TrEMBL record:
Residues 421-489 form the AMP-binding enzyme C-terminal domain. It holds the Pfam family AMP-binding. InterPro entries: AA_adenyl_dom, AMP-bd_C, AMP-bd_C_sf, AMP-dep_synth/lig_dom, ANL_N_sf. Gene3D superfamilies: 3.30.300.30, N-terminal domain of ligase-like. NCBIfam families: AA-adenyl-dom. It comes from the Bacteria. This is Amino acid adenylation domain-containing protein. GO terms for biological process: amino acid activation for nonribosomal peptide biosynthetic process; secondary metabolite biosynthetic process.
Length: 499
């Protein structure tokens, strides 16, 4: 059946698995029927307060109730915007200024952090409202697959956050491929690591919604204690992990897999950063029968555009390919003259065409026009593409390799330098678990941070053997743990201020 609204999948799944658990977090859980009923009540309440097509920011800690609120916003003919309560006040102010929302849905636990009492509505009150089936049916009749489903904020180069607007149709088409390729079914238990304002969670939420798999939300504080996290994964019988690289390596680098192995996990999809081969090997040794996949893609193309099944161990210093395009996508490289690159070894900007591109940046036509452009892919008629700002190249076997961000490319001592190249060399040093390099502009130096038992002098000596002198970090700092931002990625901004 050709469904064009994500709620059709919720209703179909709720009809099939009415009394099975849809989502749980610790001792709080909702069945599929309860989730659908709650979302309709909330949606009716929201529709009485805002116009269709409006953004509905939802500022709560992730929970089954927050999921019901997000789906409720969709029932109201609106689109939801997850807002992390950990955002500093200045960033919240910028987010609300861009959205100009009519309401802000929050809960009593986080309400004071919003600073927007004028538009605040409590989720606990919306749940108590009566559902209005006729009202919701009328809204649905006017809906289409190009309607915005959600907005997710990403950082902007100017310091102002950008809201990536993604449609129902884009999510439906991507998740269909995602669940089919990775074999996600109603029998799976999805362990959700990412906060809801990070697009990795989109794969968890809608894979569950479209298949009936149980969604287990993992509280963020569990990631501070790997044994507690592993106990939780085992207790909940989690089978599928779609996690940021930093979350996986947090467990392996702190020797958590020696404590306990989540042996029901049969598939692991990782993304967000380059996976250190040393850490991936630890996971593959612990879970020898599990399928591992390297995923790549920015928020603007709906989660991911390429995937690569990892079928053997990579040596330190080797890069793991980012693989081939998902069905319905075309992924290609452009050089500095905007010509397509076909030969191996030449770096170019990774660009994406085809289905599931975002609609653009909400209320930001200038940035949308810069990144979403028309291009004659393969010499054919011009098509809408997204320029990722990431660099890549084809290896000798024609596999696409990630080569870092354009904005991680620096010029230092007269040389153009990719910081990821230095990190790759550091990760290959014996007794270095993982690393991150930043350029500290104020001190005009490259600083390298790493986890592991190696002494800074040993790391420096090894790097001098692998890199030109101008690429060896002037400052090397050993850390007990890498600082992480709210999305579970290495906090490069924090590292720039260290040392």
């Amino acid at each position: 059946m050709n469904r064009t609204n994500i709620l059709e999948y919720l209703e179909h799944t709720a009809g099939r698995f009415r009394y099975r658990t849809a989502v749980e977090c610790n001792d709080e859980e909702l069945t599929w029927d309860e989730l659908a009923v709650m979302a309709r009540r909330i949606g009716s309440g929201i529709s009485r307060r805002v116009r269709t097509g409006s953004p509905v920011p939802v500022m709560m800690e992730k929970s089954p109730l927050m999921l019901a609120v997000m789906l409720g916003a969709v029932y109201a003919g609106c689109f939801y915007v997850p807002v992390n309560p950990d955002n500093p006040p200045e960033r919240l102010m910028k987010i609300f200024h861009l959205l100009e929302p009519e309401i802000l849905v929050t809960d009593r636990k986080t309400a004071e952090l919003s600073g927007r009492e004028d538009i605040r509505v409590f989720a606990e009150d919306l749940v108590k409202e009566d559902a209005d089936p006729a009202r919701l049916a009328k809204i649905r009749e006017q809906s289409g697959e190009t309607d915005i489903l959600y907005g997710i904020f990403t950082s902007g180069s100017t310091g102002t956050p950008k809201a990536v607007a993604v449609s129902h149709g884009a999510v439906i088409r991507f998740i269909r491929h995602f669940t089919e390729i990775f074999g996600i079914t109603a029998g799976d238990v999805i362990g959700n690591q990412a906060p809801f304002d990070f697009d990795v969670s989109v794969k968890d939420i809608y894979s569950s919604l479209m298949t009936g798999a149980k969604l287990v939300l993992i509280p963020k504080e569990y990631f501070a204690t790997p044994p507690r996290l592993l106990d939780y994964l085992c207790e909940k019988k989690v089978t599928s992990l779609t996690w940021a690289v930093s979350a996986l390596t947090l467990i392996s680098s702190l020797k958590g897999l020696r404590y306990r192995v989540p042996d029901r996990v049969n598939k692991v999809m990782f993304s967000g950063e380059a996976m250190p081969p040393k850490q991936l090997k630890l996971w593959r040794e612990a879970l020898p029968h599990t399928h591992f996949y390297n995923l790549y893609g920015p928020t603007e193309i709906t989660c991911n555009c390429t995937y690569y099944p990892v079928v053997w161990d990579y040596e330190e210093g080797e890069k793991i390919p980012i693989g081939k395009a998902f069905p319905g996508r075309t992924v290609f490289l452009l050089d500095e003259e905007d010509l397509e690159i076909a030969d191996p070894g030449r770096q170019g900007e990774i660009c994406v065409a085809g289905e599931s591109l975002a609609r653009g940046y909400y209320r930001d036509e200038e940035q949308t026009g810069k990144r979403f452009v028309m291009y004659p892919v393969g010499g054919g008629r011009p098509r809408r593409i997204y320029r990722t700002g990431d660099l890549g190249y084809y290896d000798e076997r024609g596999r696409l390799m990630f080569a870092g961000r354009k904005d991680f490319q620096i010029k230092h001592m007269g040389h153009r330098i990719e910081l990821e190249e230095i990190e790759n060399a550091m990760n290959a040093v014996q007794d270095v678990q993982r690393s991150c390099c930043v350029f500290q502009e104020k001190k005009n130096r490259i600083a390298g941070f790493y986890m592991g038992d190696a002494e800074p002098a040993e790391v420096r000596r090894d790097l001098k053997d692998k890199l030109p002198a101008y690429m060896v970090p002037a400052k090397l700092v050993r850390l007990e743990a890498m600082p992480l931002n709210k999305n579970g990625k290495t906090d490069r901004a924090s590292l720039k201020q260290m040392g």
